[in-house]
Amino acid sequence: MTAVLRARQLGKKYRRGWALTGCALDIPAGHVTGLVGPNGAGKSTLLNLAAGMLAPTTGTIEVCGGMPGSGPAQLAKVGFVAQDTPTYAGLTVADHLRLGARLNPNWDDALAHRRIERLGLDPGQRAGKLSGGQRAQLALTLGIAKRPELLILDEPVAALDPLARREFLQDLMEAVAEHGLSVVLSSHLVADLERVCDHLVVLVAAQVQLAGEVEDLLAAHHRLSGPRRDPATLPADQQVISASHTDRQTTLVVRTEAPILDPAWTVSTVGLEDLVLAYMSRPAEAGPGRRPTLEVLR
What region holds the ABC transporter domain (predicted)? Predict the structure, then answer.
């Protein structure tokens, strides 16, 4: 596997504490990777480290085969659209394209103008007069026309209405298919990730809790329902992610590669949203691969 992003014992500390700690992660090239986690989990910190906007406190991070932000050649490999889809309010759409051409050695001017025309953006319109969706599309155009190997998007659709969000994601997928981009997309909206992502990273309490291809992760997780029992009595190869109980019934989300043979359980599949929520709800001390679970008593 060729990794577009590789982190080893990566950590970042601010005055208030660690925003990211002990991060070990490999994100494969050629995928659209969804990065999800609660507020304060460290998502933006990880993406800013990958873009070279921050320097690690501990450990290492490698992006597209080099150190983030280490020089012009490395910067040219990475496109970054921050959470507020930054544009310059006083500059026109055409000004942004001219600026992109001057700053990026691999700039594809024909691609940039084709997208602007297809999106119906007025080249003479100042960015400050565009709608939120239009600004997001302009920022995406700048990121794609840079012709990066990796495009990093930090909550790019958070402030958009559902229609603008859908159009943004459709355009993103078209760009991925046409130009072979690797993408890391951070979002709170799991439904959006499910629509576009084939690889997933769940970040909770400054640590990676889950990472892998979406199809494989869903196949390895199951919901078990049956008579009430202690989750600690399950076989060792069934990692309990979350548990809830009523007086008579227990419902578990477990991870296992082995078949579940106990006839007392009713086994069903787990959707992506339920999978993400199960990991986001785990106690911070549980960490990846450990036994403690979230137990909900009803």
Answer: 5-230
